[in-house]
Amino acid sequence: MPMKRFLSVAAAAGLAMSFASSALADTVTIRYSNWLPPGFFLWDDGLKPWMDEIEEVTEGRVKVEVLPKVVGTTASQFDVVRDGLADMAFMVSSYTPGRFVLTQFGELPLLSSDARTIAPVFDRLFREHLESFGEFDGVEVLSIFTISPSQIFTKTRPVTSVADMEGLKMRSPTSGTTAFLELVGGVPINKPSTEAFEMLATGVIDGQLTQANTVVGFGQADLTKYGLLLPGGVSNAVNLVAINPGKWAEISDEDQQAILDISREKLAATVGDIYSKAEEAANEALREAGYELTEASPELVAELREMVEPINEAWFARAKEKGLENPEALLAEYREAIAASQ
Question: Which residues of 251-290 are buried (b: 16+ CB within 10 A; e: fewer)?
Answer without folding.
Answer: beeebbebbeebbbbbbbbbbbbbbbbbbeebbeebeeee
